[in-house]
Amino acid sequence: MDFEKLKENSILVTKTPLPGYNLTNILVILAQNKFRFSLRYFNRMVYTLFLSSIIAPFRIRERIKYDKKINNTEVK
């Protein structure tokens, strides 16, 4: 496969600001890094925290609604 063609059709994930991470994971990552990050990435960090904060209530609702069903599902 042609590398240049693959590159054109690929999504550059190195610039993704972790929008799918939940708030707990992001805070743990920040705590492990002693809440230090380069000012160069400040906008990404704000964006990531903003998105994960918006998603948090939906994740909680989903867990409450489906965790019991998932845990009671028998895998054959």
Question: Could you outline the blueprint of secondary structure elements for this entry?
Answer:
Elements: H1 3-8, H2 23-32, H3 42-71
End-to-end Cα distance: 39 Å
- Provide a count of the helices: 3
Q: State the helicity in percent bands.
A: 55-70%
**Unreliable residue stretches:** none
| SS class | mainly alpha
SSE series: HHH
What is the 3D shape? Answer: flat
Instruction: Return the average pLDDT rounded to an integer.
Output: 81
Strand content of the residues, in percent?
A: under 5%
Structural summary, described in words:
By secondary structure, the chain is mainly α. It has a domain at 19-71. Helices cover 61% and strands 0% of the residues. The chain contains three helices and no strands. It is flat and about 45 Å long.
Short note summarizing the structure:
The protein has a domain at 19-71. It has helices spanning 3-8, 23-32, 42-71.
What are the main properties of this structure?
single chain; flat; 76 residues
